[in-house]
Amino acid sequence: MKLDELEILEDDFDLFVALDEKEKIEFIFDAIKDGIEASVLKQINKMMKPIQKSAPIVHTEDYQVGKYRLCITTTKKQIQLNSNSLRVINKYLSKLINDGLILQRIKMKRSAHDLYKYLRVYNIIGFGGPFSNN
Asked: What pLDDT, on a 0 to 100 scale, did the predictor assign at position 34?
């Protein structure tokens, strides 16, 4: 090991101080072997694993449907449809059901964060085969 060649800058040192003794040894070993940047990224990834497991993944998209807007927010177990037109929400909901998504409606009131007039929230129960219109 060549510790005298190792240079830990201020930002990297802040991370180093937050580590426990075992992680500090691992950090120094990886820094000498692979470089500081790789060592920092490895430790950050290790710190993020518990956070990533507990945080729900949320995906939001906003679409223009004719003259109306439709905001679709999905998590692993829930879908929220927010629009200024009930017709647009119902059309999209019909598409989801015809594609085989099994949903259960949840009564929920709009909050200050909901941009549009209507909000429909559904639990995703499961997936089935798609329905045919014929």
From this structure: 84
Residues 6+ apart with CB under 8 A from 81: 70, 71, 72, 89, 92, 93, 118, 119, 120, 121, 122
Residues 53-81: tens digit of each pLDDT:
666 688 889 999 899 999 999 988 899 99
What is the distance between the alpha carbons of residues 58 and 79, in angstroms, rounded to a whole number? 10
CA 103, CA 74: separation in Å to the nearest integer? 13
- Answer left, alpha or beta for residue 118, where phi above 0 means left and psi between -120 and 50 means alpha: beta
Ordered by start, the domain boundaries in the chain are 3-54, 59-127
**In contact, 116 and 82? CB cutoff 8 Å:** yes
Nearest partner of 80 among 120, 29, 34, 50, judged by Cα: 120
Amino acid of residue 76: K
Amino acid at 118: Y
